[in-house]
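Supplementary Note 3. Input sequence used for the single-chain structure prediction.
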Amino acid sequence: MAIDGHMTWKQIREHYPQQWVVLVDHERLPQDIAGFKTARVLAVGDSRADATERARPALDAILEWGCHFTGPLRGPRFGYRPWFVP
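The predicted structure, written as discrete structure tokens, is reproduced below.
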């Protein structure tokens, strides 16, 4: 497990390129519920399952955590299409 100090998303991506990271201790942005200013890296892995498994011993005691990929997004991009058009 990594358990680094607080880092920005840019710093996390530079330290762990093309990796899955489990993040904890998020410092939230005031007006963005999904975004964060900084976070700590708890575990790193080549896959989401690998990173989560490495963090598993500590996750039972942690309420808020997330697993994110630091590389570019893969796959098709989906646009928003409302299902109901008046």
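The chain has a mean pLDDT of 83. The chain has two helices and three strands.
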